Amino acid sequence: MIRMSRCSSTLVILALLVACRGEPPAAAQSLSQRELSALVDSLMPGVAKATGLAFKSTPNAVVRSREEVRGYLLAKLQQELPPQRLEGITAAYRLLGLLPDTLDVSKLFVDLYTEQVAGFYDPDSSALFAVVGGDRAQLRLVLAHELVHALQHQYTPLDSILKDIHDADRLTAAQAVFEGQATLASLVALLPGQDVMADDGFWETFRDQLQVQQAGMKVFNQAPLVIRAGLTFPYVQGSDFVRAFRRAHADQQPFGADLPQSTEQVLHFDRYTRGDLPLTVRFTADSAVPLFEDTFGEFEIAVLRSSLAGINEVPTDLAMGWGGDRLRVYRSASGAALVWVTLFDEPRYAERFMLQIGNKLALQKRAGYRTLVDALQVGGKSAVRVVVAPDGWAALPGVELR
User: Mean pLDDT over residues 2-27, rounded?
Assistant: First the structure.
């Protein structure tokens, strides 16, 4: 997925607010640096109690104008999605039919990450930013959420974890833990009279309200499914994972060695508890220099399945038997070429993938291109290879387990 390491409540804050308060935001209010510091101090005890972690120091909190925050976020976006990486990811999504060729992805992300910004925590500077002129009740929830990120950073290297872009699926799993915990803890801190952690009905309402509020967010609502699903996954599925983790390990934190290693583990807690780790796939015997290479992962496969089926939801209740994957994009004179190999735990899962996804990809037509989908064995594991490439392109790499 197209991911940024910045921890932000931007896209879910209104849904959280409505879900827990049942009312729309009030009018905008001014905010001074002194008021922000006092608000942070007042929220810290509840956040510490909700997470089970003590603050080692008071986080640095700074008031900034909306224009200043926008400029900062745009600079971060350029750092974390440099042109070549964005080009490679965009090409992969387009070749798989997840993005239209006409979409300006760079502009979309600029608009998404500056839509309804109320505040965020930046691991690079270890600072919590609040936007002046926002609704005070909304700001309390944003600050509580971002204070959890500041607290996480005091106990785990949040900045280095979220900057590791060598395995996008693993990165998404880590983000789900950090955002899921922040979502849970902020609500527990602000709703001390409710058993938010154990109340399944509350989380059903949360999901419903999230969908309602997203419909009112113009940029978000018009984005393709793969973008929308990728942005909400850490909050929704991440909250589910952290709730399950807390039930199983009440006195532990899901950090360090306890971080899930894949979105499969986030989606299916039983896979996490039994240590179902992803296999590492490596391309070999290559005659061309790749533009982009990364993992895809179970959640993104679920998004692709929904996209191919023409539905606007992403069912994830049934495990896919995903064992690991690797995706590579090449430049060529005739256009980008994609090679994607996915391993499965058992042959039956590979067969299901072929029926639900592989066969539908093979039917997609793109002028000047061919799509090949075939079954193979990699390291004794059943696998499926997808190739979407210009006619005549022949730089197909080998594949092995590392």
Answer: 43
